[in-house]
Amino acid sequence: MDETEKRRNGETEKREGACNPPIPRFPDSPISLPADPRPQKIGLFGGTFNPIHLGHLRSAEEVREAFALDRVYFIPAAQPPHKSGRDLAQATHRLKMVELAVADNAYFLASAIELERPGTSYSIDTIRDFLTALQPASLLFIIGIDAFREFATWKDYSSIPNLSDLLVTSRPGSPTPAPDRFLPVALQTLFWYDAETNVYRHTSGHSLILHEIAGLDIAASTIRAKVRTGKSIRYLVHPAVETYITHHALYKQEGASY
User: Fold this and answer.
1) How far apart are CA 112 and CA 121, in angstroms?
2) Rounded mean pLDDT, 190-202
3) How far is CA 246 from CA 51, 84, 124, in A?
4) pLDDT digits over 124-158, tens only?
5) pLDDT at position 35, please?
6) Residue closest to 83 by CA, chosen among 223, 209, 257, 240
7) Separation of alpha carbons 191 and 200, rounded Å
8) Single pTM value for the model
9) Domain 37-217 belongs to what architecture?
């Protein structure tokens, strides 16, 4: 390649670089950022994941597909405010199981943000951290209907709809309430029901959606009970999670800490 051609190629590279500036990174952030420069649609799926099971994965996949999400972050709670430490595996174990479970899905990511932030794990803090790090992404906070019934007991619960859309998933195997009747009394002053679209609207412009999923009717408590009694958990959890539980002897004794 002669000098003229080298200079011409170098100028082309410079012009391309000017059109596609590097994505800013936050090296100190515990959030893994997607590389795509366009605004992202991000799902946030928190929980104890004690352990993560195929029901969690299937629910997240149905939501991702239905709402065309670019990423779904699975966020294990380090110190869940509404769960006691009884039968609760250490947060590092639960995070590792989440990492193993989502490793073969390019749309799923595990986040250690609540392990790296000291103190009790509050959803409002996590949503704010993601909103700051991933702007201008739009966030969809995914919550099961059982947890949603306790939503009014959460820290700064009334501020959450200002930051994110909310998606409440039905519980497989249980009747799904009518969309216009499932809102707890404490939240009825925060939203108004849009009968044309079957969603609740918030003054911020965000929405609250009740989404019925086919899912899998699996409970983490059932899995822990099976482990204690020496029964198989195959096809209830990801194979890598089953191996991890066995290798680390998790959930062998009721009420123990691991």
Assistant:
1) 11
2) 91
3) 12, 23, 34
4) 999 999 999 998 899 999 999 989 989 999 999 99
5) 59
6) 257
7) 6
8) 0.82
9) 3-Layer(aba) Sandwich (3.40)
